[in-house]
Records
---
Amino acid sequence: MSKNHTGVLENSRTRLKKVVEQRGLSDVAVTVLVKPLSAEEAIGKPGRRDFPIIIGKERVIEAEVLGAKGHAFTDSPADFTGRLKDVLNLPLKTNSDRALYIATLNAVLGHLGIAEKMVHCKDEEPELCGKEIADYILRRWGKVKVGLIGLNPAIAAALRDTFGAENIRITDLNEQNIGSEKCGVEIWDGRKKADDLIRQSDVVLITGTTLVNGTFDSIIDCIHNYGKDYLIYGVTAAGVCKLMELERICPYGRNH
């Protein structure tokens, strides 16, 4: 699979710049404060404790633009204070830069009322989210084989309960997960087996963090090549999906 890191993000940035210019925000000095949130600040206290953010592999960063907030998951959180135009000119070559851009994009589109559900759900909602996503897939596509790109334990459990472990494929980039078994499903290496997962699935569920870690373009290309159905889940992808007309599901995401 190719490693085109910025195709979709670059296209979203072109569209965002037009939106910013049309709304007269181009030359406005907008302060963007991005701060890594603690697990509890980000998602509260869900019943299960195996979400990546709780075990310390990822953090949510929060951008604030004109009072509106936007989240992005990343394994490379960094603080930033500057102007909107500074963010719009980032090179987008690193996870840190991409996360900063995406969180800011979410906040800007939230402020303008263009996108919604840019802030992470909390407490019991992450677990309910998994059930709602599984139910939605069942209603829309029936009893299908589902590929999950990016291990989300609540979603994985709900998919297993709804479709059976034998009909689920999961890839992840976290070395500690790869080769282990979760919900009766072996976790494959996303760097090597994403193509296999897509080929063997009817519907592919993609974490929005693929936009941050630079793997999204090759994944979506592969999905199109095999003619598979897909959904992108989570708050990270809110703005990009809106601007690029990509299918997203996020049952409990919040606007503030």
Note: The domain at 125-249 is CATH 3.40.50.11590 (Rossmann fold).
---
Amino acid sequence: MARGKPKLKLTDQVVLKLRELILGGGIAAGQRVTEVAISEQLGVSRTPVREALAVLSQEGLLGAAGNRGYLVQQFGSKDIEDAIEVRGLLEGAAARIVAEKGPDTALLAALESCLADGAALASRKDYSRDEEMCWAEINHRFHSLITEACGNRALISVLVLNDKLPFASSRTVVGGDTSTAQNMARHREIIVHAQADHQQIVTALRLRQSARVEALMREHARLAQSKIALFWEINSIRDQTLLP
């Protein structure tokens, strides 16, 4: 997947742009958003906007407003941090379960495929919004493989609920400015770090190091918090803009 030059679909571009507008306060908490207004604001047709709004609703960034569109949900930086922290706890428990019973060859092969795709992406000299979204899919595939393999239906159900909180899902990505070499390097640094984490996690699973892999997964989740903080810093945004 990552070995060719990634290209964002129009719906993905709209999702990413709307996430950034909401996170940056460009679309304020409590504000009503509609297909027509967003379509005109972004200069795109209503179909990708409709699809993007549905995605953001599933992520907990938007709430239904009857037949009049959506409302931007009210949340702050602590809400984001708490949701990501809970994801780390749940995914850590899932990884521990997998390590204790021993990962099967099919799971290890699938995880190795994720590592290969991630390595190809992390080695790129350039870094853009397309790469951001491509990494998000690799990352989500990696995390989903582990949680599904744990076989604990209760844990998986709670994780699904947590993913509906703003910026909690392993698939959620925030692009931000990569127009300067410095900003591009800082974005790449987080991806390179995440890729190294994935490698260590697979190694710990293979060796059935249950306590170690649980700790690695919990710590790994904190990189999502780093991405949010980087977005705010690069764009000179105070997280208070997200509060009610």
Note: Confidence is low (pLDDT under 50) at residues 1-5, 239-244.
---
Amino acid sequence: MTFSSQTAGSPSPGEPAFLVIGKLRRPHGVSGELLMEVFTDFPERIQPGSLVYTGEAHLPMRVRSRRFHQAGMLIAFEGYLDSESVQELRNCLVYVPKEDRPSLPEGDYYHHQILGLNVVDEAGAQLGKVTEILETGANDVLVIALEKGGVMLLPYIDSTVRAIDLPAGKMVVRLLAGIQTESTQSHKG
């Protein structure tokens, strides 16, 4: 089981209407290109002629050109031909409709599919909900808000995550020895 780090672009419950694929940073050169920080695991799908959506209003934009540059991508949109015209796009998020996301192999999930799942142990006891996914070097770590208060950090590995049932909104986990929970209450000393 693995995750794709492509994140949700909509705060509404369930599957988002849009997925964030990048963030426009600053103009580059004089021909209307912008440096885009790439968030998607599938940047090769962004091609000239592709339709993407920018900003909170999800303004439709057609990609005029794109090329990889250092750790990001230089992208230009139709109708934006110089560095002055693209200033309004600085710091805007770039989205694609969720229908345009690539299919993942069996057992792989997008982050937005995992966030909010109810977490139960193998005996069926309710533990809490997945509230965050931490990306670490070795493996991802699930942050689970416990029903009794506090949080639990659970490594996202096959020996702990036993099953995921998206239609039921449930994840079954095996608690390994040594997994600690943290209280969210402050301690007075």
Note: Residues 51 and 71 are 23 Å apart (CA to CA).
